[in-house]
Amino acid sequence: MSNRLDKSAYFYCMLGNPKASFGTIAADLHRIRRGALNPFFSQQAVAKFSGHVQAIVDRFVDRIKSCAERGETIPLFYAYRCVTVDIITEYIFGHQFNLLDRADWGRDFYSAWRSLWELSPTIRQFPWMMDAFMAMPRWFTALTNPKALEVVDLFSDVDEQTKILLSSDLKQIESKPYPIVVWGLSKSDLLPASEKTFTRLAVEANGLLAAGFETTGAVLTHTTYHILANPEVHRKLLAELAEAIPDLDHIPGFQQLEQLSYLRAVVKEGLRLAVGAYSRLPRVNPSGDMQYGNWVIPAGTAIGMSALFIAKSPLLFPDPDTFNPERWIINDQSPGSERLEQYILAFGKGTRSCVGTNLAHAEMYTILATIFRKFPHIKLHNTTPRDVELAHDYFAGMTRADTQGLQVIVDRTNRSEKQ
């Protein structure tokens, strides 16, 4: 039996972009595409980009300060996605979408992406729908399906950004201290010419944007909520950060932050409870039967399992619905016990795991350390467990559409944030 499993064509047609690495069906073609992407997302490459991550987070800090001065609520559900969008677009296009500067905190942008995810179950049943939407006159799509129009406009915007990048001046590109992903792919010797067409690169950019903002934004949302909803967790985290970061103007790099034991435990627990993809991520062995225990699974049969069942397994994680960073500290201090990290599946596992995992970790450690160190008196505002509960499976877990998600305020009556 070959260990190269294809993705299920029926299931993944909902994405409408089999030309992107993530949606690639055949394992052999995915290996080629992934091989070209890997150098851009290695630990070394991410380390070179980490200063830009911090610069974008510092812009986020400035906006939080402005909101605090005016006593305004900060919609962190959307704000975190503004940060992750600006980071990933800087990396793949060489310039940001500047969602952090938008008055609506990127609500319209998120709405367009959510429309795509909400349409995905229908598109899976009728895969021709996406091509039909793209071919329709814009006015007709607006009349018949406003959600589809948001998706069409989003794809068009990504196409335009790709076009601008590929027509950029070479000196401008070479002046960047880090590689620009889409530009680098267009020049890669690891890809044949058929993989470097404008259409293919634009679809790849679209996939990288989607994967690069939502999962990380969701993990940050859930982690922050649970920190603020658990005073003892909040207290311990603040104490560790205060000791590790005495100068608020100098946040350590993410590689140093990863060494902070309690912050590391908080991040792991956030990754566990955020889950990532709720769907089963089905795989197919097209060339041979598979043996599972006493059962033979015929070639061509789709198999899969939701990461939710692992993240919430009481056999692996006692009291699994409780946010308990201590479970990771105990595990780290028990050399003979089974390592629980192998059961964190927010970014997948194996050859089909998320290519941007290293970048996502850099973002999570940088953002959480910066926000909680600089705003120790941040508080939940008009946010209940229902507001952050994942109630829908649109591939990833999604919150209810009728909630504003995670919202916070900065307590002005008892704060020590540096002005």
From TrEMBL:
Its cofactor is heme. GO terms for molecular function: heme binding; iron ion binding; monooxygenase activity; oxidoreductase activity, acting on paired donors, with incorporation or reduction of molecular oxygen. Heme binds at residue 354. Transmembrane segments: none annotated. It comes from the Eukaryota. Keywords: Heme, Iron, Metal-binding, Monooxygenase, Oxidoreductase. InterPro entries: Cyt_P450, Cyt_P450_CS, Cyt_P450_E_grp-I, Cyt_P450_sf, Cytochrome_P450_monoxygenase. Gene3D superfamilies: Cytochrome P450. It holds the Pfam family p450. Belongs to the cytochrome P450 family. PANTHER family: CYTOCHROME P450, N-ACETYLTRYPTOPHAN 6-HYDROXYLASE IVOC-RELATED. This is Cytochrome P450, putative.
